[in-house]
Amino acid sequence: MACSIVQFCYFQDLQAARDFLFPHLREEIPSGALRRDPSKSTDWEDDGWGAWEETEPQEPEEEGNTCKTQKTSWLQDCVLSLSPTNDLMVIAREQKAVFLVPKWKYSDKGKEEMQFAVGWSGSLNVEEGECVTSALCIPLASQKRSSTGRPDWTCIVVGFTSGYVRFYTENGVLLLAQLLNEDPVLQLKCRTYEIPRHPGVTEQNEELSILYPAAIVTIDGFSLFQSLRACRNQVAKAAASGNENIQPPPLAYKKWGLQDIDTIIDHASVGIMTLSPFDQMKTASNIGGFNAAIKNSPPAMSQYITVGSNPFTGFFYALEGSTQPLLSHVALAVASKLTSALFNAASGWLGWKSKHEEEAVQKQKPKVEPATPLAVRFGLPDSRRHGESICLSPCNTLAAVTDDFGRVILLDVARGIAIRMWKGYRDAQIGWIQIVEDLHERVPEKADFSPFGNSQGPSRVAQFLVIYAPRRGILEVWSTQQGPRVGAFNVGKHCRLLYPGYKIMGLNNVTSQSWQPQTYQICLVDPVSGSVKTVNVPFHLALSDKKSERAKDMHLVKKLAALLKTKSPNLDLVETEIKELILDIKYPATKKQALESILASERLPFSCLRNITQTLMDTLKNQELESVDEGLLQFCANRLKLLQLYESVSQLNSLDFHLDTPFSDNDLAVLLRLDEKELLKLQALLEKYKQENTRTNVRFSDDKDGVLPVKTFLEYLEYEKDVLNVKKISEEEYVALGSFFFWKCLHGESSTEDMCHTLESAGLSPQLLLSLLLSVWLSKEKDILDKPQSVCCLHTMLSLLSKMKVFSYPPIPIVAIDETWDSQSVSPWWQQMRTACIQSENNGAALLSAHVGHSVAAQISNNMTEKKFSQTVLGADSEALTDSWEALSLDTEYWKLLLKQLEDCLILQTLLHSKGNTQTSKVSSLQAEPLPRLSVKKLLEGGKGGIADSVAKWIFKQDFSPEVLKLANEERDAENPDEPKEGVNRGFLEVSEVEMDLGAIPDLLHLAYEQFPCSLELDVLHAHCCWEYVVQWNKDPEEARFFVRSIEHLKHIFNAHVQNGIALMMWNTFLVKRFSAATYLMDKVGKSPKDRLCRRDVGMSDTAMTSFLGSCLDLLQILMEADVSRDEIQVPVLDTEDAWLSVEGPISIVELALEQKHIHYPLVEHHSILCSILYAVMRFSLKTVKPLSLFDSKGKNAFFKDLTSIQLLPSGEMDPNFISVRQQFLLKVVSAAVQAQHSATKVKDPTEEATPTPFGKDQDWPALALDLAHHLQVSEDVVRRHYVGELYNYGVDHLGEEAILQVHDKEVLASQLLVLTGQRLAHALLHTQTKEGMELLARLPPTLCTWLKAMDPHDLQNTEVPIATTAKLVNKVIELLPEKHGQYGLALHLVEAVEAVSLPSL
């Protein structure tokens, strides 16, 4: 019951608003802090855009400190306004403004809260150089009958240094602009309608007052309301049609020129006031002297108060009716920004307006009316003091003024005098809170004969002054006029205190009574914590200590709180003192608060709590019935019942009770109504589940054997109409309460019958007890599986709860199973239990409880059958039995269905908990994420693909090879001999290495296949695995092995329809954007790009991009193969298991795949060619290659289009220039491939494999080059000859001999090989410089010597080839060359030369 500060709203992203208003305070993002999304297009200029700033010299330390201070105190430099209905906030600085709107969102803790989010931001200035000086958010009342008195929309009023006042909508659309004075606007203030508290108070009109340096303009509220509505309608119509033009009504305003005052900083418009006769005569004497005449009726005057200097506070009085209000033509903003922009653009196109005409229109300003002079009547003269702000109280009787001396001065508005002063509040911000007394909180005593002593008297009103001192970071609440400080809070030094001082515009004495809006009188904006707070002040704080019984009660409450905190060894003495204190409290509400604090104490034992509550109850019963508060009496009675229940349950739990009866498997089978085979199967499933479940780090809540503190127990429960209910508490708290009731019973350590009887007598409904029992059972799975005897205890407890009856008020029995329940429908009691099992993620406990529920339900149905049988005649016994079983068939079927679903879910969960011991070189952080636990509900809501999707996530986490899935499916394949078994043997070879480490996983997988023959069909599973891997790869493209594994799964999909659809979806969703980015990048740089460029444009490293292109090539080839074979294979029928027919949720991946269109084969082939080229460039780091230059315009235009569309592709003969460029590229690829394979200096072992790429096996590049030559219209024989030449060049003659067989034009090839032979011989004779070589060279024919000297052996890549191998090559050349060939004779000479060279070595 004390003063409090409450947070009611938060900022979603206040830093974004700060960065917009203060660009120089924007924090720089460190390099690498944000990871750019590669799917978004980026420009190279964006890369490291702030790097140049690092080279600038550091600023001096003082400036750095100033900037740091400004980062926290920036809100002090802004113009701030909050709507009193809290539906809009404006933050403005200079020309910019941000409009914030509240939205309901969930916080990090999962709690729903209101957050301010940016609704609009931009520049408000129209004229050059003008800045915002003041702003108001005014909610306008709705005119609709259904929402009378409620706010319709909020208008933002902004004043500028140019003198303009502009009005905007919440979306930043300008409604109208007014220039009523050419001086800067200093302050905007608003007054809305308030119902007069009593007949003596003058009814005030609504108005908007605008303060200028030497004038005040007041706009009539009704006129402004009508104009704003008309302008808003005009904007809406103009936005819809563009040609509406309705002139809104003119604004009625008064303009007063303030005289006899030096400077004005702030003002307050008090409103219309009427003087009393005495004040009228006093004023007349002061103005007119001794002989002044007065009128019979005192005139009405508008009072204005200004603060500034000379005088420090000035009082102005304007007589009503002395001047006529001025009318202004509303300067309507041109329809809307949309139409004006279109009009200006159109006029510019068509030449309607010149630039000079537009400037002339803009420079033309409206006519400004002169002000009516108004002299200051009197003031508070203080030449050294300068006023800074003034704030009028809600009832217009007081005003608070701040000055530059750090004072806050309280003024009496009617008398014009200062009545109080506070010191030490420099730069203070002030506001008011008006509190109306709640008549229900008064003490109901007969002895109180004061006017306010009964509930029939009028409500009193108290005013509190709120002062925020930013220098000290403190917010204070003071009781006025001469009251004490009633509250103080440390809130920080950078906040802003907002006090609108108005409510909703457009109300009257009728509409203002229809609905009370939720308005905040005062708000504190804290930019550091990003929150908006308000202050709650109880009315009783305004009462003096001598007259207030409540103050005495609050003193007793504080004394009680101090007593509860002390540690006293004598508890009896403490109990006596507490009883005396609570009995001395007068107010029922305070007495209830005191009892609540006593019961919430952790230091008092249970006996003290019970005795204190009993004493208070007895005292209330002994009082007269009229003076006893009914609510307090009921509260005490309910708390006493709860304490008695707590005592009874605690006593039952503390008794030494043990079940002595032994419990065997046979007893369990009888109890659950299972035969021996079914029980063994159940036990085996639970044992597997238990073994795999213990490996995972599952944390179970430990409640210390069901012990619950009495304080917590009282917090959880509440009485409502003699029925005990549980409050809205968390799941952990719910389990703790259930454990307190049932944990000992489930362990056989407490009497189940006695506990049920106690809970039934306390008024707990059987439905609530069933919910608590199941929450305990399902959450304590680990303990339950370790103790099978708990199943018997659950069976007993469930049987007792099913027979329970609880009587409420009025006495309507709450039963578990109604005997008159229609047997043709589902029983709500058993449906509640089935729902709990369906939602539980602890599948072992859920399956056991479902078996128990099924058994108890069957037992009860049998009893009802016997009862019904006994009431029938003896001759109709068979019909009665049959009728009974037919009646219960629906519930029985639901139980059977649930048991099957839980069994399936248990097997699946066991599989997902299992782990293989395979040693992987690297585990990604994506694979380290834990898998979510399963429940029947999740599987039912996961769609048809939910089961396969969960298994796919597990396979991704374990990173199993696709062959493991095929291995586990071996038995199913054996049962279906018609299905092809290609790759099975290969799978055994690959898996054999890890088979030892898989443990029970193949068995569990096989079991899951048997349970889900449709959902885990091998093609479906491979499809989901393929999609899961590519999704995870897309999250982290550096993990290229994920994409490679995805393609492996795609290859294992047997059905071409599914394979085609999955591949097409992968291409469209994840690949085509990155593929096109890689193409344009490589075409731009003309070579394989560096790592930095790859990361910037494609979002992955150069190594990952190489693997990416290789996998893309595989995918496009799979697409083409699937398109060819899909016509031979039927579309698969996607079935669902009988137990899961009711599954709902998103469409499965396989269903989406089957909906995909047929691809356009030539277009896919076209992309495959490009992908092969890109892959070759990256794989071999080729230079001076622009991939797109190998294609003509038709070919380029067809790239990256939808693969199902028909595009115009190149056809016919290609330009020879293109073919020449393509041939050069292919020869480069062949050379690079041979170099990569045989680049070692020594001759490699022929059986050694090629060097693999970092991810998976490498391509057969020569074969790929030949395939490309076929599609690119390049002579394949040229490529083959070049390949043979390169093999011999690298000294791999044995492979060259094999490759010669593929060449068609062997004569040209022989000429090429003849040159290579000459190079080898020239190196052996001319470059080794041996004596034998020189002698041999001298013996050679001159023609051969000249030819050998012309050879350049430096072109040879391998010069260490044995001469015998070269001899074979020469013989091969002789074979290939025809005898009539011009070089045949040279070849014969070479044979002789080679033989001569080889002789010394023999």
Descriptive report:
The chain has 1402 residues and is α+β, with helices and mostly antiparallel strands. It is 45% helix and 15% strand. It is built from 46 helices and 35 strands. The strands form eight sheets. Strands 2-3-4-5-1-31-30-29 form an eight-stranded mixed beta sheet, covered by helices on one side. Strands 10, 11, 12, 13, 17 and 19 form a six-stranded mixed beta sheet that branches. Strand 32 and strand 33 form a beta hairpin. Helix 21 packs antiparallel against helix 22. It is flat.
Task: Furnish the topology, listing elements before pairings.
Layout: E1 4-11, H1 14-21, H2 61-73, E2 79-82, E3 89-93, E4 96-106, E5 112-123, E6 132-141, E7 151-160, E8 164-168, E9 174-179, E10 187-191, E11 207-212, E12 215-220, H3 221-240, E13 251-259, E14 263-274, H4 277-288, E15 300-309, E16 313-319, E17 326-328, E18 331-332, H5 337-350, H6 355-363, E19 372-375, E20 378-380, E21 387-392, E22 398-403, E23 408-412, E24 417-422, E25 429-436, E26 461-469, E27 474-479, E28 485-490, E29 496-498, E30 523-526, E31 531-536, H7 549-565, H8 571-584, H9 588-599, H10 606-622, H11 630-654, H12 665-672, H13 676-695, H14 710-716, E32 717-720, E33 723-726, H15 731-746, H16 752-762, H17 766-779, H18 781-786, H19 790-802, E34 805-807, E35 813-815, H20 828-839, H21 843-870, H22 877-887, H23 889-913, H24 936-941, H25 946-958, H26 962-968, H27 970-975, H28 984-991, H29 1001-1011, H30 1018-1035, H31 1040-1052, H32 1056-1085, H33 1091-1097, H34 1102-1125, H35 1149-1154, H36 1161-1180, H37 1193-1198, H38 1216-1238, H39 1261-1271, H40 1276-1289, H41 1293-1300, H42 1306-1327, H43 1331-1339, H44 1342-1349, H45 1363-1376, ...
Parallel strand pairs: 1-5, 13-19
Antiparallel strand pairs: 1-31, 2-3, 3-4, 4-5, 6-7, 7-8, 8-9, 9-18, 10-11, 11-12, 12-13, 13-17, 14-15, 15-16, 16-20, 21-22, 22-23, 23-24, 25-26, 26-27, 27-28, 29-30, 30-31, 32-33, 34-35
Helix pairs in contact: 7-8, 7-9, 8-10, 9-11, 10-11, 11-16, 13-23, 15-17, 17-19, 17-20, 17-21, 19-21, 20-21, 20-23, 21-22, 21-23, 23-29, 25-30, 26-28, 26-29, 30-31, 30-32, 31-34, 32-34, 34-36, 38-39, 38-40, 39-40, 40-41, 40-42, 42-45, 42-46, 45-46
Region (Disordered): 33-69
Domain Rab3GAP regulatory subunit C-terminal: 769-1378
Organism: Macaca mulatta (Rhesus macaque)
